[in-house]
Structure formats: structure tokens, C-alpha cells
Design a protein that fits this description.
By secondary structure, the protein is of the alpha/beta class. The protein folds into 4 domains: 212 residues, Alpha-Beta Complex (Quinone Oxidoreductase, Chain A, domain 1), CATH 3.90.180; 137 residues, 3-Layer(aba) Sandwich (Rossmann fold); 120 residues, 3-Layer(aba) Sandwich (Rossmann fold); 178 residues, Dihydrodipicolinate Reductase, domain 2, CATH 3.30.360. Helices cover 35% and strands 23% of the residues. The chain is built from 25 helices and 31 strands. Strands 30-29-28-27-23-26-25-24-31 form a 9-stranded mixed sheet. Strands 3, 5, 6, 7, 8, 15 and 16 form a 7-stranded mixed sheet that branches. The chain is elongated, with a radius of gyration of 29 Å. Keywords: Metal-binding, Oxidoreductase, Zinc. It holds the Pfam family GFO_IDH_MocA. GO terms for molecular function: metal ion binding; nucleotide binding; oxidoreductase activity.
């Protein structure tokens, strides 16, 4: 299928061929009929991409702050690779469309194949021929509403949320500053609510359009006509609300808002304009400044948008989806007219040229639509693909298939970790061939194929598992899918490298082990890379053998996650420690050369900090302090191992030291922290090529996973948990 994409580093726009997205549970696959270009938001993004690196930095100081923090935590080279990887990737455009349901995922019962729906979201309603859209980001289109009009649903929801934030009432007077697409819709929504509207825009054509759609008066922001109209309509008191729907770097909109708003009026920011509030003017009138967040409640909440968890209507009357449905209803009943806003309809094949014309100013437009080619055949009946390979019981004696040289690898998932920490090492390794990348999001597969040289990109997992030329499968997806994908790959006879965690529940772990037993295939490695870190390996060698029990302390200054991170989706992806804690348990067990026999975990109330105590057969203990409330400038990982009159210390994979009869201190690493990914991957590839033992024994992987699961059980029970009980 085709999709409009942009390279944020070069500014290149392209109509790219990408794999068709899969139809996941909880959503529908939609074939686009019309998609809407947001001439404000999208063109701002397109313009930013065309800036120099310095210009990009100036326009996004929030991202610059994240880069600075990443440098402090991960070092310059790793941060540079990560930033350049993100910049030099294709990113999607679009967030408002109308299309036909082509396939229905499991758990969806409110629409069927062939239904017309309006879709929202800058990750799901893209300028693409096909999109997978979760339940709370689509709404059925009312009978009789034209698809090109329904494509306005998302931007209509943005305007509607802004009007709701203004709490307009019958008979009030409102000022709308900025008469672009959002401003024109705000004018109509306010007029439909019984509010008289004055519009402000420097473009006379837009002023005329707003007056034709219901505004009482419109004019240039610097003209006296606007102030005179406000004075006449309000008896000199000023407007009840001001809606800032303008963009740009001028502070004129907020200054005008203060001048024309009444005492204790409301100012609502919908667009993205400069907000240097003149303190005296806003203070003297005690103006109520409000922000309108996109389409409405639910926006940026993964539980609502991705998992389909609705907010009870008794507590949240207007959510994203209800706003979308309400706007479609208003357009269907003729209360809002979007036809006059359509300046141009372009064929989807002309998308790149259309963006260029808009950016260069050749095409003057309020709203531009892409029309997609109609399908000559009817959509297929809905189907659910279950990628499973059935094997008869082999009694654990099935031989491992001989491997070739080069080793052919397939990746299931191509997110940030895969593209920044794994694939760069593999592309530089002799004797490795990147065969296929599999993702559910088409564009990420295309990006990985382009950047790392995969021979194929697809969304069909079955095809990869059934491909006898593939020697090993890397599972680098979200945590909730690790165990099931690992199980299927083992049953298909593949060597498997799965990122941590191996499993989120005891049943999932049991399922993986059942697959090993059924297939006789135990070729499994979990991404516990720290034991392969050269600095830690040298420190362990310098420490030498021990005779008595050891005490190990591991402080993990994990820090807080960004709002919206999928790591926070504990209902589906497990706790944060469940996802990451295996790293630290594996490192402790490797240093102590044993598997833990019991786990005790405690957590202070009100935050995610954990104290985990592991006990080992010889009496050794390891205490892992996993904290999220520490200072961001402090190193992430510090470790101390004490035994037999010796101390080993690791400082965040930058420096290590051993104190004993002699003192050894490593030199500070000249480059980035090496946490062992390269050596781990080399060991895995070597084992696959030669058929030799896997880098970490399966028994150790299982013990570490069971210990990680026992942490949650210990928190719930408030007592130590033996690993036998945890399993």
C-alpha cells in the first residue's frame, strides 16, 4: 500500500510503498476514502523538517532538553545514534480521515465490514491507503453524510473541545482570533450554540468566509472595525470568551485578547501561538486562561486510546470518541457546513506535489482533501490470523536443524531498542544476513528495511516462521507478546533471541517451557546483556574466585517515565520492574555464580520504588534498589560486591574497581557505555552458526524469570517467596 511520509532530518516528502498493517484485536482495518490535510499543524511539521539542525533545536527546546539528559545518562555516541536514528527515519503525516471498514479485529462489535467510519489520531488516521484504528478513535458515519465531509471529524473534534473549554452560553459574545480551518469551525460551533461571534484574521478572504458561515463581524486585527464591533455587541464591556486559533510567533493575539475581553472573561488557547501574557492586563481583568487539549478527554491516555477503556459517561460526558460522533451528527444535520471550507481535492498519487504547493504558497487553502482510489473488488470477509505451527510430541529429542553461513536473522518488532541497540551491531557483523523484519505497523517495517538492509519487510509473522531459510528469530516487541511469540518461534524450529522479559506470568513461562518440551528445541536466549559487558567481565576476573558468602548491592536509579510511555500500561505490559528487573537479577546471579532460591520485596507507599532481596544457596544475598524518585543527574546503575575481604565496584559501566590485596581501577571509557549488547549478539550468532551451547543456560533464564515474577508475588503477600512456590 502507499503512505505519505516525511524524513525529519532531510525534509524529504515521499509517497512510500509500505506493508499493509495487521488487524489487531480491539480495532478495525480501514481503507481510506478521504483524508484531510491540516493546513496548520501538518504544514508546521513540514516546515520544521526543512529547517537546519539549529532551527529544529530552536523550534523544539523540549526535545533538546531530552537530548541533554540522554547524554548525561547514556553518553554522547549512544545519544547521537539514537537522535540521528530518529531524525533519519520516515515519519507519518495525517490525523483525520474517513474510510470503509475492511477487517474487524477481535472484541469489536459496533461496526462491521463495509461500514463507513471517521477516524482520528496521528498514529492511526494517517495519509495511507489502509490504517488500523483502535475502538475509541473511530466513530460510525451517520447515514447520508458524504465521506469527504466525514473526513473533517478529527479537526471538528479539536474545535469542539475548544468551545467546550470556553463554556459558552446562549446570548454571549465570543472573539475568534485566527480564521484558518479550526477557527472557521469554532465560528460555526459557537453560532450553532446561540453565541454571537466576531472574527479576526489578516486575510480578507477568510474574514468573508467566516461571515458567510455565521460570524457577526470580522476584520483585520489592527483595524478599529473589530474593536468597534465588540463594543457595539457588548455595550462596551468586552467579549465573554476569546478563542485563540492562530499560530505563529507574534504575541499580538494574546494582547488583543486582553484588550477585548470583559472583566473575568475566559481566554481559550486552541492553536499554537506565542503566549507571553501581559501580566497587568490579565491580572487587572482576572482573566481565566484555559488550554484545550486536542480532541478531548482520553487524548494521550494509552488505556483509553489503545486499550479501548472508555470513561464512564456519568463522570466524563464528552470524550474523544463522543466529541467525534457529536461533530459528525452536527454536520449530518446541517448545523455545521464544511463544504465551503474545501479549497482543493487532490488525488492521493499527487500528495507530495500538493504539500509542496501548500508549503510554497502556490496553493492558498483552508482545507485540502486527498481522494483515494476506489477499490474494484469488495473487501474480504473478516478473518483472524493465528500464527501457530503445530508439532507432534517429540519427547525432547528433536535434533536442531543444521544452520548455514551466513546466519539468516528475522526481527519481529523494530522499535527504539531494536533500532538503536541491536541492529547497529548486527549490520556491522560478518556472516550475518538480515532476512526479514516483521511489524504490525507498516511504516516501522519500511523504515527498518531502508536503514538496516533487511531483504524483506512484512506484517505476516506466519510467513517468517514458515521460512526454512531463516535460522533465528529476534522477538523485540512489547512485553505482553514476548512469551507467545517465543513459544511459536520455538515450535517452528527457530533459534530465538527474545528481549526481556521472557514472560509476564507463571502461565506464560510454563507455556514457553511446554514448547521447548514439545519441539525438543531449547535454542533460546533472553536479552540479559549486562553479564556480557567487557568492563564488568574484566572486573569479575580481577575479583577472582571467592570462598565465603557474598553481599551484593545494586542501585538502579531508573528515573521517571515520560507521560504516555507504554511502560506505564501495567494492565497489559506488566509492572515496570517486571519488564526491566530481569536485567539486574541476571547480573547479580552471574556475579554470584548461582540462581536465587528466595525473593523478598518491599515498596514504600505512593511510588514505584522497590527493594528486592535475593537469597542464594550458599547464603549470599543481593539487594536490588530499583528507584524512580532519585535525581536525574545521578548515574543509573551502581553496583558493589563484597566477599572474602574484597570489594568490586561498578560505576554505571563507565568505571570499575576492585579492592583487595591489590587495587585495580579501570581507565574511564573513552566512548559510550558498553552494556554488553555487541558481545551478547556475537555469542548468540556464534551459537546459532556452530550449533554449540547457547550463551546462557536455559535453566538460568528460567530461574531469573521466575525470580522476577516472584517480586510481584512478594509485594502482594508481604513475605519472602521461594522460587519453588513462585514457579
Amino acid at each position: 500500500m502507499k503512505q505519505v511520509v516525511q524524513n525529519y532530518k532531510s525534509g524529504e516528502l515521499a509517497l512510500l510503498d509500505v506493508p499493509v498493517p495487521g488487524c489487531k484485536p480491539g480495532g478495525v482495518l480501514v481503507r481510506t476514502a478521504f483524508s484531510l490535510i491540516s493546513t496548520g499543524t501538518e504544514l508546521m511539521k513540514v516546515s520544521e523538517a526543512g529547517m537546519s539542525m539549529l532551527g529544529k533545536a530552536r523550534s523544539r527546546p523540549d526535545q533538546v532538553a531530552k537530548v541533554v539528559q540522554s547524554v548525561a545518562t547514556n553518553g554522547v555516541p549512544a545519544t547521537y545514534r539514537k537522535v540521528m536514528g530518529k531524525l533519519d527515519s520516515y515519519t507519518p503525516l495525517g490525523y483525520s480521515l474517513c474510510g470503509v471498514v475492511e477487517q474487524v479485529g477481535a472484541g469489536i462489535d459496533d461496526v462491521k465490514v463495509g461500514d463507513l467510519v471517521a477516524c482520528a489520531g496521528n498514529e492511526h488516521a494517517l495519509h495511507a491507503e489502509l490504517n488500523w484504528v483502535p475502538k475509541n478513535l473511530y466513530a460510525p458515519v451517520p447515514d447520508g453524510l458524504a465521506p469527504r465531509h466525514a473526513a473533517f471529524g478529527t479537526v471538528g473534534s479539536i474545535a469542539m473541545q475548544g468551545v467546550r473549554q470556553g463554556e459558552s452560553r446562549l446570548g454571549e459574545v465570543a472573539l475568534v482570533i485566527g480564521l484558518g480551518l479550526i477557527g472557521q469551525l469554532v465560528v460555526q460551533l459557537l453560532t450553532a450554540s446561540g453565541v454571537r461571534v466576531v472574527g479576526v484574521d489578516p486575510d480578507p478572504a477568510r474574514c468573508e468566509l467566516a461571515e458567510s458561515l455565521g460570524a457577526t463581524a470580522c476584520g483585520d486585527p489592527s483595524s478599529a472595525a473589530v474593536e468597534n464591533s465588540v463594543a457595539e455587541l457588548t455595550d462596551g464591556h468586552g467579549v465573554d470568551q476569546v478563542y485563540l486559533a492562530a499560530g505563529g510567533g507574534s504575541n499580538q493575539p494574546v494582547e488583543l485578547a486582553a484588550r477585548l475581553c470583559r472583566d473575568r472573561g475566559r481566554v481559550v488557547d486552541i492553536g499554537k501561538c506565542r503566549l507571553d501574557l501581559p501580566w497587568n492586563a490579565y491580572y487587572e481583568k482576572e482573566l481565566d486562561v484555559r488550554f484545550s487539549r486536542s480532541y478531548g478527554p482520553g487524548r494521550y491516555d494509552p488505556a483509553y486510546e489503545l486499550e479501548g477503556r472508555d470513561y464512564p459517561i456519568g463522570y466524563v460526558r464528552w470524550t474523544e470518541r463522543r466529541n467525534l460522533a457529536c461533530f459528525l451528527d452536527l454536520v449530518a444535520r446541517g448545523k455545521v457546513d464544511v463544504e465551503p471550507l474545501i479549497s482543493h481535492i487532490a488525488g492521493f498519487d499527487d500528495a507530495v506535489e500538493t504539500y509542496r504547493s501548500l508549503k510554497d504558497g502556490e496553493l492558498k487553502a483552508v482545507a485540502v482533501l486527498f481522494r483515494y482510489p476506489e477499490q474494484a473488488v469488495e473487501a474480504e470477509a473478516p478473518a483472524v490470523t493465528v500464527p501457530a505451527v503445530k508439532r507432534t510430541a517429540a519427547g525432547g529429542s528433536a535434533p536442531v536443524r543444521p544452520v548455514r553461513t551466513p546466519v539468516r536473522l528475522a526481527f519481529v518488532g523494530a522499535g527504539n531498542y531494536a533500532t538503536s541497540m541491536l541492529l547497529p551491531h548486527l549490520t556491522q557483523r560478518d556472516g550475518v544476513e538480515l532476512s526479514t523484519v516483521v511489524t504490525t505497523t507498516a511504516l516501522s517495517a519500511a523504515n527498518a528495511q531502508r536503514k538496516f538492509g533487511f531483504a524483506e519487510a512484512t506484517t505476516d509473522l506466519d510467513a517468517v516462521l514458515g521460512d526454512k531459510s531463516v535460522d533465528a528469530v529476534f522477538v523485540v516487541t512489547r512485553h505482553s507478546s514476548h512469551a507467545e511469540l517465543t513459544r511459536k518461534a520455538l515450535l517452528a524450529g527457530k533459534a530465538v533471541f527474545v528481549e526481556k522479559p521472557l514472560a509476564l506470568t507463571e502461565d506464560e513461562l510454563a507455556g514457553v517451557l511446554a514448547a521447548v518440551e514439545e519441539s525438543g528445541n531449547d535454542r533460546l536466549q533472553v536479552g540479559f546483556n549486562r553479564r556480557f559487558a567487557p568492563l564488568l567481565q574484566e572486573a569479575r576476573q580481577r575479583f577472582g574466585a571467592r570462598t565465603g558468602p557474598a553481599s551484593l548491592r545494586y542501585l538502579v536509579n531508573a528515573g521517571r517515565l515520560d507521560h504516555g510511555s507504554w511502560y506505564l500500561q501495567q494492565g497489559t505490559e506488566g509492572s515496570r520492574f517486571a519488564g526491566e528487573g530481569g536485567h539486574f537479577i541476571d547480573t547479580a546471579s552471574w556475579l554470584l555464580d548461582a540462581d536465587p532460591v528466595s525473593v523478598y520485596a518491599v515498596a514504600p507507599s505512593g511510588n514505584e520504588d522497590l527493594q528486592v532481596v535475593l537469597r542464594y544457596p550458599d547464603g549470599s544475598t543481593a539487594t536490588i534498589s530499583y528507584v524512580t524518585t532519585g535525581a536525574s543527574g545521578f548515574p543509573k546503575e551502581t553496583l558493589d560486591l563484597v566477599a572474602d575481604g574484597k570489594v568490586l565496584r561498578l560505576d554505571d559501566f563507565v568505571r570499575a574497581s576492585v579492592y583487595g590485596h591489590k587495587k585495580w581501577v579501570s581507565s574511564r571509557l573513552p566512548k559510550a557505555r558498553d552494556k554488553g549488547q555487541s558481545a551478547e549478539l556475537a555469542a548468540f550468532v556464534r551459537a546459532v552458526r556452530t550449533g554449540g551451547p547457547m550463551p546462557v543456560p536455559l535453566e538460568s533464564l528460567v530461574a531469573t524469570t521466575a525470580a522476577t515474577l516472584a517480586v510481584q508475588a512478594g509485594l502482594a503477600g508481604g513475605a519472602p517467596v521461594t522460587l519453588a512456590d513462585a514457579r
